[in-house]
UniProtKB/TrEMBL annotation:
Residues reported in the UniProt entry to bind GTP: L11, A12, G13, K24, N52, D70, D105
Compartment annotation: Cytoplasm
Top-level enzyme category: transferase
Self-association state and partner proteins as the record states: Monomer.
Gene transcribed to yield this protein: mobA
Cofactor(s) for this UniProt protein: Mg(2+)
Provenance organism: Microvirga mediterraneensis
A cellular component term, taken from the record's GO annotations: cytoplasm
Binding site for Mg(2+): D105
The enzyme's E.C. designation: 2.7.7.77
Alphabetical keyword list: Cytoplasm, GTP-binding, Magnesium, Metal-binding, Molybdenum cofactor biosynthesis, Nucleotide-binding, Nucleotidyltransferase, Transferase
Lineage: Bacteria, Pseudomonadati, Pseudomonadota, Alphaproteobacteria, Hyphomicrobiales
Protein name: Molybdenum cofactor guanylyltransferase
Domain MobA-like NTP transferase per the UniProt entry, residue ranges: 8-166
Catalytic function, reaction form: Mo-molybdopterin + GTP + H(+) = Mo-molybdopterin guanine dinucleotide + diphosphate
NCBIfam families attached to this UniProt entry: molyb_mobA
Length: 208
């Protein structure tokens, strides 16, 4: 199937202690920031793309996409970033009914991600979909209906839910799966060693 019109959001949250406290998504791989890699992979699959990030947005001044801070206070993690995208879409792009999210430290997301997430949720008759590779589910790589924005706000503020997995399980989710060989397309950067490995992969053409 052709994917319905979908807003893409790159979750580019806080600082990384394991990377020396730097703004991880601004670290470079093969001459581009991790954020640039994620945006370049996601944007062609979507009908608009934004970045969710807190703090001084001036550090993203070269980015050609909106940068939107959390719509609720407290630095509540990636689930708050998903809420932000759902609420932003409802206000600024009301014709879009879906949001696809990816983490900013995952530079090799598949080129067919959004379509396959939609295929999975239709086939499984579930309202949500998440990516998986091998035995791991990547809950931050997911597809979310804008219609659930009020439910998600309540979950964060009144039910104290912080985990994407916990919220997704409340509604039921489909899984779209990718192989991890020869390389996991959801390889993410957590350490300097990961960054070096990603740089090598990118120089070799990345993961397609």
């Amino acid at each position: 199937m052709t994917a319905p019109p979908t807003l893409g959001v790159v979750l580019a949250g806080g600082l990384s202690r394991r990377m020396g406290g730097s703004d991880k998504v601004l670290l470079t791989v093969d001459g581009l920031t991790l954020l640039d890699h994620a945006v370049q992979r996601l944007a062609p699959q979507c009908d608009g793309t934004l970045v969710n990030a807190n703090g001084d947005i001036a550090r993203f001044r070269t980015l050609a996409h909106p940068v939107v801070p959390d719509s609720i206070d407290g630095h509540l993690g990636p689930l708050a970033g998903i809420l932000t995208a759902l609420e932003w879409s409802a206000i600024h792009r009301p014709e879009l009914e879906w949001v696809a999210s990816v983490p900013g430290d995952t530079p090799f997301i598949p080129d067919d991600l959004v379509r396959r997430l939609h295929d999975a949720r239709v086939e499984a008759e579930r309202p949500l979909a998440c990516a998986s590779s091998g035995s791991q589910i990547h809950f931050a790589v997911g597809l979310w209906p804008v219609s659930l924005r009020h439910d998600l706000r309540e979950a964060l503020l009144e039910k104290d839910i912080r985990s994407i997995r916990d919220w997704a399980q409340l509604h039921g989710y489909a899984k779209a799966s990718w192989p991890i060989e020869p390389t996991d397309p959801f390889f993410n950067i957590n350490t300097p060693e990961d960054l070096a490995e990603a740089d090598l992969l990118a120089q070799q053409g990345g993961i397609r």
